[in-house]
Amino acid sequence: MAEIRYTEEFLRRYKELPLSIQKKAERREKLFHENPYHSSLKTEKLQPAEREYWSFRVDRNYRIIFRFGGNNTIYFITCGHHNWIYRYLLSH
After folding, report:
1. What residues pair up with 60 in beta bridges, in sequence order?
2. How much is the pTM?
3. Superfamily classification of domain 3-91
4. Cα 2–Cα 80–Cα 74 angle in degrees, nearest 5
């Protein structure tokens, strides 16, 4: 099983999420930990592909952005509303 590590960006943004979304995110993270490609997560590689960012759904509006690292490690980069996430990715 992969180890999940959290960036400071992710931890800061997570605390800003509504409590109901945090609870959903916790349930989705457990599912992700068991199988990052579970169909209900809608895991997808984001563009541009060479940046190696991936996302999965917390719900219809919220996403978690992550990257696969070496040594069986996954880095959660950030999280937030779908619209904000894609603006964030364009600026980084």
Report:
1. none
2. 0.90
3. RelE-like (3.30.2310.20)
4. 15
